[in-house]
Every structure is written in C-alpha cells, then in structure tokens.
Amino acid sequence: MERRTFRAMGTEIDLLVDASGATAALSAAEDEFHRLEAILSRFRQDSELSLLNRAGRLDPGPDLMRVTELALAAREDTGGRFDPTVHDAVVAAGYDRTFESIAAHGPEPEARACGGEVRIDRGVIELDDGVRLDFGGIGKGYAADRAAEVLAIAGPCLVNAGGDIAVRDGAWPIAVQTATGSLTVELTSGALATSGRDRRRWQRGGRELHHLIDPATGTSAGGDLVRATVVASDAVVAEVWAKALFLAGEEAGAAEADLLRLPSVFVSTGGTTRLAGGLR
Known about the structure:
By secondary structure, the protein is α+β, with helices and mostly antiparallel strands. The chain has one domain: ApbE-like domains (T-fold), CATH 3.10.520.10. The chain contains 7 helices and 15 strands. The chain has helices at residues 23-40, 48-55, 62-77, 87-92, 136-151, 235-248, 250-260; strands at residues 2-8, 11-17, 57-58, 118-121, 124-127, 157-161, 164-177, 182-196, 201-204, 207-210, 213-214, 219-220, 225-232, 264-268, 273-276. The strands form 4 sheets. The chain has an 8-stranded antiparallel beta sheet with strand order 1-2-6-7-8-13-14-15. A 3-stranded antiparallel beta sheet has the order 3-5-4, with helices on one face. Strand 1 and strand 2 form a beta hairpin. Helix 1 packs antiparallel against helix 5 (136-151) and helix 6 runs antiparallel to helix 7 (250-260).
C-alpha cells in the first residue's frame, strides 16, 4: 500500500493505492487536485470560476463547463435544495474567505436570494445580473472522482478529500460517524460524502452559523439533522444528495433515500442515528 497526504481545496487530501511503484500515479492524482482547484476555487481571484463570477459571462474550459452542467442538473433533480447560486448567501453568512481565516464573531447577516438563472448556450456560460456561483462541495467531489480515475491506473485506490471519499476496486472499510460512535461501510466502488453543520461553524449576531446554506431561506440551514452521509455511484452524486437529504430533514430525507436506494446515515440533533436507503 502506498499513500500520499497533502492540502488542496481547503482540506486535507489522502490518497491510497494498493500497489507498489505508484509514485507517478500519486503525483498525477495530486496534480489533478491542484489543477482543478485553480479552475474551480472561489477563493482564487485568477480561477475560471472567479472570472465567470466577475464578468457574468464566460467561454469556459471543459472542467468548469462540466461542473456547471452537473450543478444545474443537480438543482433540477433535488428541487432546488442543491443550488450553485448560493455564493452570495455563503459570503453574507461570513464564509467570505478560507475557513481558517473566518472571524469567530461578527454582526447578524442578511439573507441573500438564491435560485438565479444560469444559461449555457453554444459553449458559453451566462449568469443573470447579481448571480454568482459556488462550487465548494460539488467541486471537491468532482476532483475526488477525477483523481480516483487517475490513481486507478496504478491499482485499487481510495481518495479522501476531507470526507468526500471515492474508491476504485478493492474492498475499502470506511468508518461513518454516528450519534454514539461509528459504523463501518465497505466500498468496492463508488463514493461516500457527508454534509453536516457540526464542523465549519462560527457566530454572527450571537447566532451560530455554518456553511450549509438552505437556498429556500438564503441563510445557514436549520432542521433536525446534525449530518447526513450518503453512498452513491460517484462523489459528485454523493455530495449532491448528502446536502439535499440533510436539508430535507430526518423523516423526509430517510423516505427519499429509501425511494432513491441511496444508502444513508442520518444523525439527528436529538442524538439518534437512523439508517436508510438499504443500510441495516
């Protein structure tokens, strides 16, 4: 087993490959994370995403185009619970810089509208006036999937991007946090992602806020869940539905996970754990 750990996209990345002599593949997978961060990060003023957000219109490269298409499809599939136009709401809530630099306290923010129009026509992305995109979660999932494809050339592999986990081949036991400990999910392919409000938190106006914005309210989500973990075919899908089911809440989220056959683990604010989507 060979391993490499580094930082990218605001989190720690862990690469594992069950092979020897995999140095070149590990380097290529790491390079893929840094390459995609340079395209998709809203914290980098020279990224393609930042250029699009400033100009409102862009003829993008293939990765920004693909992530935009995936995000818009996810908005449709989730009924707007996943929405890439939450950029201004995230910034207004206080997440206007890398998490390590966020002030711990500040004034109460105003909610910001989400759901603005994003058009793709003849290879050009165009945003409505005042609309800006944030690809934080889905961008990380996309990068995890791409890095896993690169690393899989060397052998069975696992990519862990701050909890977004993508695997290719092999048998990989993954610990999922519950209300009272953890349970183990074994992945042989696909991915796992978690959305929760218990890690990235800060205070504004005496109220605790976090990075998971509810597009319906334009501010940090409430509800009866602390976190939701979803297993899916790839890390993009897992990211999208972890957030969508988190916003749905325990009862509706579990019912939807069962309907979609998405193995899921829900941890409630009351300190209980609920399994759904085929997990028992």
